[in-house]
């Protein structure tokens, strides 16, 4: 039972990263005055990082200058948007969407939503597109961060369900962090890692990252592999495990399928061969394999560096292969644990909020699943044709095939790869709706209709963190201006659109009076599925605190760890090895673009900085965008620390300051992802990045682009 709060305190959840820390919001009923970590929350036990502990500063009265406070509409592209009322705004939107649907069919409209929406918001958008309109064109910025993890889990373990949890760190003997700067991207989880290491000095920590990040600095073994060579490393580690007979044949025989095919492939990946591909010392590969296989309890944690790759799904599968071969799964302290970047990327997965998924971890490609969802929703059918994934969606907009788009709680004009193309797409699309808390985003500039949305502290619902833990988000203060909840505005629009399309079912499809009614329908959609939460109500979450799924009817607590019985949710009950092979990144460095650019997060900023960018103290760590480069590369180009440089790829260029950094190897450079258009540069980091994507997950290769870097002549 959680401790009682003071009268004007509200228990909620941080809205930034996938750690999902609990917060207590201090307020006076009108204004948020402070925030502190919730000591009862099992993700953070009272701790908050720099971003979480300054959340209240993002909702001070002076932040209203950048908030969207009322609907704004322009009826032609030559005019400026002007203030309007909600009725006019939503009627206009419904008219425009209905016209496009009548003239061009349902696939000419689309929704692009966000892992920062609450589960209830996500559910309504998904139903609006797939249930009412009859298009699967609903995708999310989570496609950019975790879709490779989703497919990686499904291909190997049979379901999109991270098997481990934060508490497992207490029992972990070897922590294998790969493609994750946990110290910056998941700071409170990293504190837990530090605690676990302090309590267990024998615990080994391996970090795989091309850069010497703050996380890598603390590793017992840092494998600074060449970008994109992950699979060669993992296959070589498995090769060593086989050679040394560190694998677990009994577990493989009883609980897995497909090992022989993988064995034949990894036989070729000798440590010496992989050392050449990865730019590593062969002995370090052997050491990593030994620690991984023989520790007794190995946990892998991985994130964007693994997922944002043209072979991201197989990066995930190759990690999971090692866990299955060594039986490092389904026991305390062990398992392949993909970390979610955003606060509710996991909730979006639960409701099927991607263009190829359906509610309750169902697949669009499965006719039975489509029929189940149609029955649940009371519609004739759910369309079979897969919707457009994020990159495909903006391509289709640029080609004039998608003519109306609704973008909620995300800023694709800054966060999508190949920004020039995305800007062209937004210019080409006939009607762009942007539903946003902030009116100053890159994407809001393109809005024909800007709808003000509520933000953290002003809305209610649920989010699910990386360890499958569902937490309540609770409104503490009234929304500013005329801002409305995302689900509420989407439902109002749906009802109007349904009437214009003469859909008699609309009222039945969208009957919700509040978030809890949406939640209750969502949980029913999970009945009998791997994530079954039919035993979990808002009241349970409030009385017993955040819970992990599954939590079926009759359960008294959520499931801490999955697959402890060795039974996997596949047809045979066995996990599957996936044959993975080394492949190059799509864009290679060459004579014209000789530097390999990677992107990532800073400690104190979040995504496109709409929120963190309003807090002065969060600039103390890094005040401006910089490109980090190795001293040897700088000397070769006659560059000095602090020089203004032009960074150019085949897709665009940006101008920013140069920072000498020993954290990047020669031939590589790093840029933070956060900055968009700035005083020095027409576009942001993603003007340089590439839209090529993984064939299974369709997640773009945001981590790898070839660039040239040269001094700005007059700097
Ligand atoms: Fe928020 Fe993540 Fe920091 Fe926790 S670690 S306070 S969830 S940003």
UniProtKB/TrEMBL annotation:
Keyword Iron tagged: yes
Task: Specify the superkingdom.
Answer: Bacteria
Q: Domain 4Fe-4S Mo/W bis-MGD-type spans what residues?
A: 7-63
Keywords from the UniProt entry: 4Fe-4S, Iron, Iron-sulfur, Metal-binding, Molybdenum, Nitrate assimilation, Oxidoreductase
Q: Which cofactor does it need?
A: Mo-bis(molybdopterin guanine dinucleotide); [4Fe-4S] cluster
On whether Zinc is a keyword of this UniProt record, the answer is no
Q: Report the family membership.
A: Belongs to the prokaryotic molybdopterin-containing oxidoreductase family. NasA/NapA/NarB subfamily.
User: This protein is called what?
Assistant: Nitrate reductase
The lineage is: Bacteria, Pseudomonadati, Pseudomonadota, Betaproteobacteria, Rhodocyclales
